[in-house]
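Subject: Sanity check before I submit

Could someone independently write out the structure tokens for this chain? I want to compare against mine line by line before I put it in a report. The sequence has 191 residues.
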Amino acid sequence: MSNTDPTQSGFAHLAARDPFEPPPPKAAVWPQTLVGAGVLLTGLALAYGATGISSEAGYGGVGPNFLPWLVSVALTICGAWIIWEARTGGFREMDASDGEPCYWSGFAWVSAGLLLNAGLITYIGFILSCTLCYFLAVQGLRRSKGQAGVNAPRTWLNDVVTGFLIAAPVYWMFTKFLAINLPGLTATGWI
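---
Independent answer below. Compare away.
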């Protein structure tokens, strides 16, 4: 009886895979590869854009191109890793689909919040536009989970007040403490 190592006998690809794990369907590999390629290309495009940003050291010895370079390197590494994962057997740790369809109405609520925030921020100010964004996004998420009482006035009021209580301190921190101009409703810097 010989003691053969499976990694030496040409069956290394079988030894690395869990024998009880079914191989991923071939159709799933290409979408995963395309996602990885998209992330990789985004990282490379960001790196190309970062070459045009000045590298003169600013506050704390870090130049304005530091963060774009950091993000581009991270995205490039992640994109290459996603492609490698997809091409060597697919996303092995991905949860199996439970067959639940997408909730498009919730997607529409969240998208409306983001788009209205971007479109209205210069007209109604940072605080109100971010409050509206929060309210619409939370409504979409509540509806996607089937929560009871999403149309109740109390729920709406709680969501608006919570959105305001999140957006206002952020606005004040940026405008009053960091001296960064954000769109406001008045020239006072308080709303």
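---
OP: Matches mine. For the report I'm noting this point. The CA atoms of residues 13 and 19 lie 11 Å apart.
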